[in-house]
């Protein structure tokens, strides 16, 4: 799933200090900046549906402890443990990376606010591939400008396209991508595989499934 690969790439980008290394390169400075290990780190994933599970199994394969968050704390495949949304705030100080991978509802609109950024590690990063309105963008900008967190990778925004004058464009240690995390070179093959699998079920009179990971396609 391209979205899950996007998340892993985003986390690696910051854990291995590529933004800082790039800045040093642009200054033509030979600076040995030490990144942080991915193995042994902790990832907090809001949303334990298909995308969240795909992120979790990839992250765990790299030695990351993955904590999921869903509405009721219902256990989900692929996570080391799952907690309820009502109990999520105390989990933030544990997390080296925080991934928002849940749909937008009336309950969670603007839930990730200044209190959440204050609770995160200063070395923590935020990755949002859910919906832009999950995050209070002004609080994110303030957190980044004041160094409360180490970085952010955002593929979704409350207003899309992101206006040219928006403060997120020029924010240090922040990567803004134009809602493209779902795109990948194998998308068409995956679509065909899902269609064929569901068509076989339809002909057999069995219930159709959603999309499923196809190992031979990396999905």
What does this structure look like?
The protein is α/β, with parallel strands linked by helices. Helix content is 31%, strand content 14%. The chain contains six helices and seven strands; from the N terminus they run ααβαβββαβαββα. The chain has helices at 2-15, 18-26, 50-61, 114-119, 137-145, 187-203, and strands spanning 42-46, 65-70, 81-84, 97-100, 125-128, 151-154, 174-176. A seven-stranded parallel sheet has the order 3-2-1-4-5-6-7, covered by helices on one side. Strand 5 (125-128), helix 5 (137-145) and strand 6 form a beta-alpha-beta unit. Helix 1 packs across helix 3. It is globular, with a radius of gyration of 18 Å. It starts with a helix and ends in a 16-residue tail after the last helix.
Question: How do you describe this structure in short?
Answer:
The chain is α/β, with parallel strands linked by helices and 219 residues long. The protein has helices at residues 2-15, 18-26, 50-61, 114-119, 137-145, 187-203, and strands at residues 42-46, 65-70, 81-84, 97-100, 125-128, 151-154, 174-176.
Question: Which descriptors apply to this entry?
Answer:
6 helices, disordered C terminus, 219 residues, alpha/beta
Q: How is the biggest beta sheet arranged?
A: 7 strands, parallel
Q: Indicate the structural class.
A: alpha/beta
Uncertain residue ranges: 212-219
Distance from first to last alpha carbon: 5 Å
What would the principal axes of the Cα set say about the shape? globular
H/E topology pattern = HHEHEEEHEHEEH
Radius of gyration: 18 Å
- Average pLDDT confidence is 91
| Number of helical elements | 6
Helix content percent band: 25-40%
Specify the oligomeric state.
single chain
Record field, number of beta strands: 7
Spatial order of the strands forming the largest sheet: 3-2-1-4-5-6-7
């Amino acid at each position: 799933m391209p979205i899950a690969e996007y998340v892993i790439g985003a986390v690696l980008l910051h854990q291995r200090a590529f933004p800082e290394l790039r800045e040093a390169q642009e200054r033509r400075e030979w600076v040995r900046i030490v990144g942080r290990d991915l193995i042994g780190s902790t990832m907090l994933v809001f949303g334990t549906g298909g995308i969240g599970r795909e992120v979790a199994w990839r992250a765990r394969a790299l030695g990351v402890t993955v904590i999921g968050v869903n509405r009721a704390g219902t256990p989900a495949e692929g996570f080391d443990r799952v907690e309820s949304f009502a109990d999520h705030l105390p989990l933030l100080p544990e997390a080296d990376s925080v991934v928002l991978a849940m749909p937008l509802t009336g309950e969670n609109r603007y839930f990730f606010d200044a209190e959440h950024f204050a609770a995160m590690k200063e070395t923590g990063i935020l990755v949002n591939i859910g919906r832009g309105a999950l995050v209070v963008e002004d609080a994110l900008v303030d957190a980044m400008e004041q160094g409360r967190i180490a970085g952010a990778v955002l593929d979704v925004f409350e207003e899309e396209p992101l206006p040219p004058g928006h403060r997120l464009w020029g924010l240090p240690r922040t990567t803004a991508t134009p809602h493209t995390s779902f795109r990948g070179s194998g998308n068409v093959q995956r679509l065909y595989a899902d269609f064929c699998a569901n068509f076989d079920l339809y002909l057999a009179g069995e219930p159709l499934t959603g999309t499923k990971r196809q190992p031979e396609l990396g999905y």
